[in-house]
Design brief:
Elements (H helix, E strand, L loop, with lengths): L2 H10 L16 E5 L2 E2 L7 E8 L2 E12 L2 H4 L11 E8 L14 E3 L6 H11 L17 H29 L4 H13 L1 H12 L5 H6 L3 H11 L10 H17 L20 H14 L3 H7 L3 H7 L27 H22 L6 H9 L6 H8 L7 H15 L8 H8 L1
Helix pairs in contact: 3-17, 4-13, 4-16, 5-6, 5-13, 8-9, 8-10
Length: 424
C-alpha cells in the first residue's frame, strides 16, 4: 500500500457505501470536508471538517500507511501536529497521542475503501512491469478527458522550458537578444553538441555579434574561433583565412575560446555537423541582427519558415569539414529543423515574453504549436501503438510530458488518466 493512494481516497472521499465509517474506537465518523491538501511540510490536509461521535471538529488531518509512522516521522515532537483532529491510516498498529497526552482519533481505512478502487489500483500498480501502467486501458479514456489534460501537460512542459530561460534573463538584466542567442545556439548544437554550443555562446559578449554581424566572414571567424575549431593546422586557404581573422578579433576583443575537444562530430549526420550549424547560425545573424525582436513580431508558421531561410557560406557547399572536399550541396536550414527550434526555443521565449508583458491569452502560441507537424521518436511511436495517435506537435509535446513526468515517475494518482480509471 502506498500513502499517495490513501491521500487520493481521502481527498475524493472514495469510501465504500456499504458500511458506516467508524474510528478504531467505534465512534461514527462523518466527513463534511476533506480539507485542503498540503503539498509542503506539515499536516497533510488543512481545515478539514469532520463529525466524530456527532461532535463537529475543524482542524488538520494526517495520513500514514501505519499508525507507527507517526513516531517514525517524529510528529510527537512537532507542535504543528497538535492540531490533528483525525489520523487516517491503512493499518492501525499503535495508539497515537498529542503532546498533551490526549489520544488522537484514528480511522483505519482498509475496511472502508471501495473494493473497486483497490482492484483498479492493483491493476495499475501490481501487475508485471509495463511500458506505462495503464497501457491496456488508456485507449478507452474519453477523448474529452485526454484533450483537456493535454493542455495542462503542454503548459507544464512550457513552464519547465521557460524557467531555465527566466533565470538566465534575470542574470543578464533582461537582455532578451543575448539570452535568445544562447538558447538558440544550444538548439543548433542538438543533443550531441547542445551544451558545447551553449558554452560557446557564453564565451564572448553578445555585443561582438552586433559589431561583426555586418561582415559575414568576420562573424563566421568569430563563431568558429570561439567554438575552438580553428586550433588545428590544415592546408585549406579558407581555414587559414578564418584563423588569421579570428586571431585579430581575439586580440582586439580579448576573448577566450572554449576547449577544442568540446565540439563533437561523432554520431552526427553530415548536415548536422557543428561546422555546418555554426555557418548557418552566422549567416542567420548576419541576415537578422535583431533576431529576437523579429521572432516576437511573427505569429505564423510560414513566417518563421521564411525568417529561417538561410544557408551556409559558399565554402560549406562543397565541404562538411575543413579536411576534405565533398560534392556540392546547398545546405539550407530545413523546415523540420525550424520546427525543432520553434518547439524548444522560440515558443518558450514567446510564452515567457507574454508572461512578462502581463498577457495571459496564449491563443497565438496554441495556434503555432498546433500548426507544427508531430514529432517522431520512440515515446510517440509507443503511444501510437497504444492507439493514442498524434496529429501535431502540441499533442506530441503533451505526450512527452505525460510519459516523462507522470508515467515514468508512477504519478498515476496525479494523472487525469489514472484518476479516471480509479474513479470509473
Amino acid at each position: 500500500m502506498k500513502e499517495n493512494l490513501l491521500h487520493f481516497v481521502w481527498k475524493l472521499k472514495m469510501f465504500t457505501t456499504k458500511k458506516k465509517i467508524l474510528s478504531t474506537k467505534g465512534d461514527l465518523i462523518e466527513i463534511i470536508s476533506a480539507g485542503t491538501e498540503n503539498l509542503n511540510s506539515g499536516p497533510d490536509f488543512f481545515n478539514s471538517k469532520i463529525k466524530i461521535a456527532n461532535q463537529l471538529w475543524v482542524g488538520n488531518v494526517e495520513i500514514h500507511v501505519k499508525s507507527s509512522n507517526w513516531y517514525e516521522h517524529n510528529h510527537q515532537e512537532d507542535e504543528r501536529y497538535n492540531s490533528i483532529i483525525l489520523h487516517v491510516v491503512w493499518e492501525h498498529d499503535v495508539e497515537v497521542f498529542r503532546n498533551t497526552n490526549e489520544n488522537i482519533v484514528t480511522l483505519e481505512l482498509k475496511n472502508f475503501i471501495s473494493p473497486v478502487v483497490l482492484a483498479q489500483y492493483n491493476k495499475l500498480f501490481l501487475q508485471p512491469k509495463k511500458w506505462i501502467n495503464c497501457e491496456n486501458e488508456i485507449e478507452n479514456i474519453d477523448s474529452f478527458v485526454l484533450n483537456h489534460f493535454f493542455e495542462q501537460l503542454y503548459f507544464e512542459r512550457l513552464e519547465q522550458k521557460s524557467s531555465l530561460i527566466s533565470q538566465k534573463l534575470k542574470n543578464s538584466n533582461y537582455n532578451w537578444e543575448t539570452v535568445f542567442f544562447s538558447f538558440l545556439s544550444k538548439a543548433f548544437g542538438l543533443k550531441v553538441n547542445g551544451d558545447s554550443f551553449y558554452n560557446f555562446s557564453n564565451s564572448f559578449d553578445f555585443s561582438l555579434v552586433r559589431k561583426t554581424g555586418s561582415n559575414l566572414f568576420q562573424l563566421e571567424a568569430l563563431f568558429f574561433g570561439q567554438a575552438g575549431l580553428l586550433e588545428n593546422e590544415y592546408e585549406s586557404t579558407y581555414y587559414n583565412s578564418l584563423k588569421s581573422e579570428y586571431n585579430y578579433l581575439k586580440s582586439k576583443f580579448k576573448t577566450t575560446s572554449i576547449n577544442k575537444n568540446e565540439i563533437q562530430f561523432f554520431r552526427l549526420r553530415p548536415n548536422n555537423f557543428p561546422t555546418i550549424r555554426l555557418s548557418q547560425l552566422a549567416t542567420l545573424y548576419h541576415k537578422h541582427q535583431n533576431l529576437f525582436s523579429k521572432i516576437i513580431e511573427i505569429n505564423s508558421l510560414d513566417g518563421f519558415y521564411k525568417l529561417f531561410e538561410v544557408t551556409t557560406t559558399e565554402y560549406w557547399e562543397t565541404h562538411y569539414t575543413f579536411e576534405t572536399t565533398s560534392k556540392k550541396n546547398v545546405k539550407k536550414i530545413t523546415k523540420a529543423f525550424v520546427d525543432l527550434l520553434l518547439i524548444n526555443v522560440i515558443i518558450p521565449f514567446k510564452f515567457l515574453y507574454l508572461q512578462q508583458q502581463g498577457k495571459t491569452d496564449y491563443a497565438e502560441i496554441m495556434k503555432l504549436i498546433e500548426a507544427i507537424k508531430p514529432e517522431k521518436n520512440s515515446i510517440i511511436s509507443n503511444f501510437d501503438s497504444l492507439k493514442i495517435k498524434s496529429t501535431n506537435a502540441f499533442e506530441t509535446q503533451a505526450l512527452l510530458q505525460l510519459k516523462n513526468e507522470y508515467c515514468s515517475k508512477l504519478k498515476c494518482l496525479n494523472c487525469a488518466v489514472g484518476k479516471t480509471l480509479l474513479t470509473s
